[in-house]
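Its record is retained below.
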Amino acid sequence: MYKNIVPRVAAIHDLSGFGRSSLTVIMPILSTMGIQVCPLPTAVLSTHSAFPDFHFHDLTNEMSPIIAHWKRLDLRFDAIYSGYMGSAKQIDILRDFIRDFHHEEQLIVVDPVLGDNGKLYRSFSSEMIDKMKELVCVANVITPNLTEAAFLLDEPYSENLTEAELKEWVKRLSAFGPQTVIITSAPVTGNRGKTSVVAFNSTDKRYWKVVCDYMPASYPGTGDAFASVITGSLLQGDSLPIAIDRAVQFISIAVRATFGYNYQPSEGILLEKVLSSLNAPVQMSSYQLLD
């Protein structure tokens, strides 16, 4: 069977002209990690949605013709990686795309973008939660934040979940279908100055946790950056805990590099200053294997 000389990823996300998020974050990260990115934009925006009065152009009607051309070219993707989906119809198009381009060795990563800080994004309704539940069923890896995990599980959002409850959540999410579930922005019991990533792999039934310092700043696009490093690391052959370590360390470096400047957070992390760190070995393995 034909194998790509360079690993190739189909990235189904939106594209913002200004503000480091979605494809403007995903493409440089994966390219730096030695992976070819083939973008399939779901929408084009003048800026990401944290800026007021942004211009938005929906590309739903353009997705199928692009996919049809890729079919005629008989393209083979080592991974399919999705993020923000603007509508239920786009999710249906993506599910058909995954079905039509599927092969056994393929990695399918779904970042189930629905909301943050306990709230659903303004443009979404409960229909999107239901459609996202369908989409995660066909993924190998999902990377919800705590809010999105709560929506997928029909659970109330809480910043006070215990480690045992987080383990239960990742295991329940894996029952939807994905072998690997990674919840970001997870609380650390009794320590408000820390945040964590908790993961479960249903193949070996192991739970993993990486703890990092909480920085009092919010930068759009960090979720996109995190999921992109996870995707790149797994394609490079890293183990799940090393992939999580690599992603957490990269985000931590990027946030620290950005935080010291008098800088508008809505512009996102100063990605260009830290991209080269992706080619460095993991500095220190901080993952924990949970009982």
Residues 129 and 151 are 7 Å apart (CA to CA). The chain has eight helices and 14 strands. The two ends are 40 Å apart (CA to CA). Residues 240-259 form the longest helix (20 residues).
